[in-house]
Amino acid sequence: MIGRNAVVPYLWALAGVALVSGLIALVSADARIANVSILYLPAVLLAAARAGRGPAIVASLAAFLAYDLLFVEPRFHLAVADPQEWIALLLLLLAAIITGQVAADQRTRAREAQRREREAILLYDVTRLMGDPDLDRALADVAERVRRELGLAGVAIELEEGRHVASGDEDARRALRTVDASRAVGAGRSPTATARSGPVRGVRVVSPYLRRISAAGPSSIPILVEDRRVGTLLALGPRGRGPSRDEDRVLAAVAAQLGSATLRERLRREAAEAEVLRRADEAKRALLHAVSHDLRTPLSSIIAGATSLRQHDVAWSEDEREEFLAGIEDEARRLDRFVGDLLSVSRIESGTLRPAKDWHDVGDLVDDVVGRMRPHAPRHRIVVDIADELPPTKLDQVEIEQVLTNLIENATKYADVGTEVVVSVRQDGDDVRFDISDRGPGVPLEAARRVFEPFERAARDGAAGTGLGLAVAKSFVEAHGGRIWIEQRTGGGSTFAFTLPRSA
Asked: Could you report the per-residue pLDDT of 259-291, keeping only the tens digit for each?
């Protein structure tokens, strides 16, 4: 039985012909106009443009019959008194049919272009949504977008990693969950027999016309990557029917995009894992280099000093013994700082760095650190410049003392002998700013960011170091909600500056 929606366009076409016939009757009542039958052509054009080829042909035939019956002598009969009128009638029929066909073809092309545009937008949206780092959320957004665009009752996406997302009402979701995924399109056939090349190398698109599950049930389209099935796209049309042929074609393209996205995700994951392994290998090599050099140097000095003191055949003076003991103590402290930096880096890498903050007087903290550092930097003069009336600041005393120690030690290591190292503290808006300035060779601009990475050093005058001190300082400062950077000093040298919120 022909549905009501299918009959309505034909009724509108006949109504248009009837309206034009009434108009011709009104015009002919006052004056005789030649070729008045041409007024039927707009009715045929309108029927073709709005309803398609079938209603246009019906309108053409109706116009032919109406004009013959109502306006050609003898009226109300199909017979024609004047044979020349046959030519006019046939030309009217031919012109109406051709005009209707042309208009219907243009309408079909316009609708096809609109459909292709919608499909292109849909596929673009699928590609854009699959760029979300959260794969589960991306799949849910894709399922909802496809369902709304195609007017489906439900859409579900299943991947081999155990991911399953669905969009639609509860009945549609339940129906999709009951679908046996083994009945996917192309099941039981070789991949090459049921697939055509997709837009990305290694991804296949299965034609939905090779096999359908059921016209009254969901469609199941496999998602393939490199001829291997990695998931399934399930779709259910309104009232439990399967998607139409055009919808199946779009779903196949969406499945191809999902396959491409899955392949990209896998390649991105493999690249990330390879990068992690590469960084871990670099860290291991750097650590081995640091341990082999920076651990052996103080250990060798400690062993040499202790061995010398144990020599009973040599009469060491008291000053010489004191010098040996001071050297052993300095190297032991250096070794202790190096081990402490390694432990700090370990805490940072494991994510267990949690500052234990409390209120402290910044001026007293800086004075304590500088007081401990002066004996270990005899070749430099450390100057302290603390602004008056600095408010108390909430910080982890041990960590910030370590930051200041590392930065001051770095400055004395590279600054020219006899120059000043200035430690200044002042309020900077809602933050407290610390500056450690030296008169060394400075840090090259290209190395300003890199020096804060573990085991990275700016090669300045070949000074020894592990490259851990600045990395630890950066991590401690950022854990407090502050930031750290390097500035070039006017007249030469560098300023290592960092800020801390007054109350984080």
From this structure: 888 888 888 888 888 888 887 777 667 666 666
Is residue 343 within 8 Å of residue 306, measured between CB atoms?
A: no
The 3-state secondary structure of 147-187, one letter per residue? HHHHCCCEEEEEECCCCEEEEECHHHHHHHHCCCHHHCCCC
CA distance 299 to 217: 78
394 membership: H or E segment, kind and range: strand 393-395
Structure tokens at 273: 């894992």
Q: Which residues pair with 424 in a beta bridge?
A: 385, 435
The answer to whether 414 and 456 are in contact (CB under 8 A) is no
Element (H, E) at 301: helix 296-309
> Which range has highest mean pLDDT (55-59, 69-73, 88-92)?
55-59
Q: Containing H/E element for 487?
A: strand 483-488
The long-range contacts involving 196-203, CB below 8 angstroms and separated by at least 24 positions, are: 198/256, 198/259, 198/260, 199/256, 199/257, 199/260, 200/256, 200/259, 200/260, 200/263, 200/264, 202/226, 202/263, 203/256, 203/259, 203/260, 203/263
Give whole-number Cα distances, 40 to 17, 48, 103, 481, in Å: 7, 13, 14, 80
Query: What is the pTM assigned to this prediction?
Result: 0.44
CB-based contact 258:142 (threshold 8 Å):
yes
311-331 tens-digit pLDDT = 878 888 888 888 888 888 888
The answer to whether 308 and 325 have CB atoms below 8 angstroms apart is no
CA distance 60 to 52: 13
Give percent above pLDDT 70 in the chain. 73
The whole-angstrom separation of Cα 251 and Cα 256 is 9
Which helix H or strand E contains 137, and what residues bound it? helix 135-150
Taken in order 167, 170, 174, 175, the sign of the CA dihedral is negative
Per-residue tokens: 11: 């009724």
Other CB atoms within 10 Å distance of the CB of residue 116: 10
Measured CA to CA, the distance from residue 481 to residue 501 in angstroms comes to: 7
Three-class secondary structure of residue 17 per DSSP: helix
The pLDDT, as a whole number, for residue 499 is 93
Most confident region among 71-75, 129-133, 290-294 by mean pLDDT: 129-133
Rounded mean pLDDT, 473-497: 88
In what order do the strands lie in the sheet containing 431-437? Answer: 381-386, 420-428, 431-437, 494-501, 483-488
The band of 178, judged by pLDDT with boundaries at 50, 70 and 90, is low
Rank 43-57, 236-250, 279-293, 478-492 by mean pLDDT and report only the highest: 478-492
